[in-house]
Amino acid sequence: MTEKIIILDFGSQVTQLIGRRLRELNVYCEIYPFNKIPALDASVKGVILSGSPFSVRDDRAPQVDLENIKGKLPLLGICYGAQYLAYHFGGDVKPSLSREYGRAKLHIVSDSRLFEGVRDGSQIWMSHGDTIARIPEGAEVIASTEDITNAAYHIIGEDTYAVQFHPEVFHTEEGPVILKNFAIDICGCKGDWTPASFIENTVRELREKLGNDKVILGLSGGVDSTVAGVLLNKAIGSNLYCIFVDNGLLRLNEFNDVLSSYKDMGLNVIGVDASEKFLSALKGVTDPEAKRKAIGKTFIDVFDEQARKITGAKWLAQGTIYPDVIESASVNGPSATIKSHHNVGGLPEKMNLKIVEPLRSLFKDEVRRVGRELGIKKGLIDRHPFPGPSLGIRILGEVTTQKLEILRKADDIFISGLRNTPCSPGIKSASDPLSDATNLYDSIWQAGTILLPVKSVGVMGDERTYEYTVALRAVISTDGMTADWVHLPYEFLAKTSNDIINKVKGVNRVVYDISSKPPATIEWE
Ligand code: XMP
């Protein structure tokens, strides 16, 4: 049984970060909405209460039943969590005279296991409008700041701790030490949840669950489905049937390159060239949503047709990852929202298949770490996200074979250039925040080229030209929900633009997209 810490989410923007930080300590954890506490079996070593946009004094403040938790399991309240414990257990919470926001210095006022080894005077990050005016009964203050006395407290006789600041955010310098003290020393977690242990446990569980059954998996060339495929292959070998569809909208040489990598890894993979079907479904379609629908529907038809050939299959595997399944705490009403992921919508029901999702407990960079541990080569692991509808939504307006050819060449020049250009030292890798990036591609979260539906006048030699414009897009992001455009070096942009205009027939102008999300989106359609 994998030991774990439960994080109860009261709707803070940074709840997921608590999870990330614990996982970096090799401690497994799961995030649940405050009103959906899971069974507290022996695997649960401790509980963390997150922050919240609410004040504990608000009528609509989220309430949690701590009957089976407080005093029985190690408990850490963060921000709202700290104020909640004070408010409901004999202390008091009042509006702060000045909003306690931003950096402050932590002064340790009493020895505690939570702050063991934490440097006195280190920077912490605050973000709250209320303050703890009186700590709960039986508690002792363990840290203060210049402005607030009750920055952190411990309830004597219990493993209950509370901090009004956010140890999970980067700006809290000793945050990792504080979380480690809680998880390892106070909760007693071993901190042995590593990619290797994840693989060992998952392979064992998959073997138990799947037995001798046949499983179908759609491979996309992306990191998640690739890692899911290799993991399943390790567990059930040739009972895994992978399907990789060429939708005719992939990047230059992508289908053949990725297909041979899959075969080299020993995957039992069927490559299906369905380009014609996709291109005819897209003929004359210009509306972005209609294009997405046409591509999605064709994919399901092609996948369904192939999957039916695998007689006796019982399972459909999916590369769903943790951010797709975390139920966010809905602080504004009882119904919690769930993002779900239906790459092959409707198929499981139609074919009566059960779903298996071996990566559903992992964050994206953990998927990559597991992939590295499985020996998958770098070129597949560090790939930028790529949308399901592929270049179909990067050719604005109608998709044609001629436009695809132009876009593929231009995009190949941009992407190869990013891969071949070193980046400045000290910049973190977008695919592995624990290491430094070695080239521009690795320092960027996602990059791509867009073919615009406008022609403009240019001059080449003595000749007037009237050709297409391509836009280059490169962004940094953590989850695709927000993104900033990347300040690519001018020399790189100059060289890329020159190469594209000189080498790609049909393009006489290159522009760089300097819009952030929001208000723009990453894709143009
Ligand atoms: P936007 O354009 O919404 O993109 O800022 C956010 C992230 O989602 C990807 N994306 C898609 N992925 N099917 C997908 O599988 C789609 O229809 C789709 N549209 C956008 C996009 O590439 C970016 O990573």
TrEMBL record:
A single MF term (Gene Ontology): GMP synthase activity
Name the record gives this protein: GMP synthase [glutamine-hydrolyzing]
Residue numbers annotated as active site: 79 (nucleophile), 166, 168
Binding site for ATP: 220-226
EC numbers, comma separated: 6.3.5.2
Cellular component terms per the entry's GO annotation: cytosol
UniProt xrefs under InterPro entries: Class_I_gatase-like, GATASE, GMP_synth_C, GMP_synth_GATase, GMP_synthase, GMPS_ATP_PPase_dom, NAD/GMP_synthase, Rossmann-like_a/b/a_fold
Quaternary structure (record): Homodimer.
Gene that this sequence comes from: guaA
Reactions catalysed, as given in the entry: XMP + L-glutamine + ATP + H2O = GMP + L-glutamate + AMP + diphosphate + 2 H(+)
